[in-house]
Design goal:
The protein is of the alpha+beta class. Helices cover 30% and strands 14% of the residues.
């Protein structure tokens, strides 16, 4: 069963970096420590041996219990990639409690791209903008954003990048999300040179965090790095406890952005660690609801957009860099067609628009009628 940790209170057993070899080493180390401690009094008290053996058995049993809790797909994923395991971090070694701050934010570094002449920049923009036709052909849930709003959101994107010392970013695709309750949209942008305006490739409806209920976060604002340090994974396509395919149909890619401080949408508010992801959703019952806030904190996107971003590697720059260095990453399909302008950033803003624009319609009553009980708890 797909058991995600998208949004929601952190759960140690749901973390996808939890692997059996690590658990085994932890168990052996714990047993070894107990053995050495008992060794000091071995001769004086023969019962120490029995105590150590019993403790070792308990540690091993606990490790086996935790290993059984890891989804089979996650375990097989760790075996099918040659990417070295990352050293344990605060996020991967143990999930923080709701009262603890999330781990330190990832340091964002401006990527290096070749300097272009004016003629080269024109050609680069022309070639990259050919992706507009591909987007229109492959993505079935699209928003037709007027040129004035395309430019306005390009300016919002630039302002967000400026705040994170990434204002000179160019030469790669960037994903922008507006979490405003009246908008709920995702945009893909590109520009060849830093002094140029951002140009929109395409836009689609999304669903972000819906406050007002326990364990529901507002989708976090900021610039987020898509990196193999928080390895993506793929949906199993199985039903959760609410008979919802929370991650969508089988093989949909889950873009994992790691632990972040999320603003709680319940109680007295405040912030707690949440696992931030972008992913597809149940194609029959929940995808029709895209366009309103409906998730527990993550960004739900249409299945066709998920495939488009995945197949063309729109934000896979750091994944493709590992492949170029000789690594084999199970999460990347062998038949993908990565773009030469692959990016790595997802930017979330809140336009705080008071009225819903005509180009971003809300789902109708028929779509809302399809949502079963518990449908808003899918992720």
């Amino acid at each position: 069963m797909d058991v995600g940790s998208c949004g929601g209170i952190p759960n140690f057993f749901h973390h996808r970096k939890l692997k059996w070899p690590l658990l085994k080493r932890l168990a052996l180390c714990a047993a070894a420590c107990l053995w050495l401690a008992a060794g000091a009094t071995w001769a004086a008290d023969g019962t120490a041996t029995q105590a150590v053996n019993e403790a070792s058995d308990e540690v091993s049993d606990a490790a086996l219990d935790v290993a059984d809790a890891v989804p089979e797909s996650a375990a097989s994923a760790s075996q099918s990639t040659s990417l070295p395991a990352s050293p344990p971090t605060a996020a991967s070694a143990a999930a923080p409690s709701a009262s603890e701050p999330a781990s330190a934010p990832t340091v964002l570094t401006l990527p290096e791209h070749p300097q272009l002449t004016e003629e080269q920049a024109v050609e680069e923009n022309h070639r990259a903008l050919e992706m507009r036709a591909v987007f229109a052909r492959e993505v079935t849930r699209r928003l037709h954003v007027p040129l004035a709003d395309q430019r306005a959101y390009g300016q919002r994107l630039q302002a967000a990048l400026d705040e994170h010392d990434l204002g000179e970013l160019a030469g790669e695709f960037v994903i922008l999300v507006d979490r405003a309750a009246t908008v709920q949209a995702l945009f893909i942008y590109f520009r060849a040179m830093p002094d140029e305006p951002w140009l929109m490739i395409g836009a689609s409806p999304v669903a972000t965090g819906r406050p007002g209920e326990f364990d529901h976060f507002l989708t976090p604002l900021g610039v987020f790095l898509h990196t193999p340090d928080n390895m993506d994974f793929r949906a199993e396509g199985t039903m959760n406890q609410n008979n919802i395919r929370g991650y969508g149909k089988r093989d949909m890619r889950i873009y994992d952005l790691g632990w972040v401080d999320g603003e709680r949408g319940w109680g007295k508010g405040g912030f707690s660690p949440m696992r931030f992801q972008m992913h597809a959703t149940d194609p029959d019952r929940l995808e029709p609801l895209l366009g309103i806030r409906h998730s527990k904190g993550c960004v739900r996107i249409p299945a066709s957009l998920n495939v488009f971003i995945d197949h063309h590697g729109i934000i896979d720059a750091e994944y493709e860099a590992l492949v170029a260095s000789g690594k084999s990453l199970w999460v990347l399909h062998s038949d993908r067609q990565p773009t030469p302008w692959a990016g790595r950033f997802i930017v979330v803003v809140d336009s705080e628009r008071k009225t819903r624009p005509a180009w971003s319609p809300a789902p109708g009553s028929k779509a809302r009628a399809k949502v079963p009980a518990g449908g808003d708890k899918a992720d």
